[in-house]
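Quick one, probably user error.
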């Protein structure tokens, strides 16, 4: 659980750093502490670096396979925040990032890779992609105003709902 907590802290802090200019002007963040208002950029970077180091340390304590996979997993998690702003399919990418969770748990316990967590990963891709698209549909007007290339903002809003139907069909 410690490695998961630290990975989440690392990725959320990185996302807030990357999106700090959007968040400062976003009405949904007006009452929240964000980077640039309440938290300095230096403090946020410190959290990113220390929590990433903590993830690597925890994974090293588990087994070598977890340690080898930890840095690419963190890199893919950070890449989501870039892909979200530049692609219609950021939700699918986020699902792929979350799909690594069952595989990571399996590797932590067994020290090996197998097909069972991969099957759970495919289910995670569809489930998280659907939830993220639903969240984007909820924020359609804000994301359209900010010119974000998320699925419902760059396609007609009905398409985002159609995507949800596809995720539900397979998930």
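Nope, works fine. Designed sequence:
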């Amino acid at each position: 659980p410690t490695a998961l907590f630290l990975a989440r802290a690392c990725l959320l802090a990185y996302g807030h750093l990357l999106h700090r200019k959007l968040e400062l002007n976003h009405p949904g963040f007006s009452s929240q502490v964000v980077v640039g208002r309440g938290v300095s950029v230096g403090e946020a970077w410190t959290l990113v670096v220390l929590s990433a180091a903590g993830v690597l340390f925890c994974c090293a304590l588990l087994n070598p396979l977890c340690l080898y996979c930890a840095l690419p997993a963190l890199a893919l998690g950070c890449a989501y925040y870039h892909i979200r702003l530049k692609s219609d399919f950021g939700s699918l990418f986020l699902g792929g990032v979350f799909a690594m969770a069952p595989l990571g748990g399996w590797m932590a316990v067994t020290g090996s890779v197998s097909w069972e967590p991969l099957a759970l990963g495919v289910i995670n891709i569809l489930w998280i992609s659907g939830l993220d698209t639903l969240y984007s549909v909820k924020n359609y007007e804000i994301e359209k105003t900010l010119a974000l290339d998320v699925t419902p903002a760059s396609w007609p809003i009905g398409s985002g709902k159609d995507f949800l139907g596809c995720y539900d069909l397979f998930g």
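The first strand starts at residue 34 and ends at 35.
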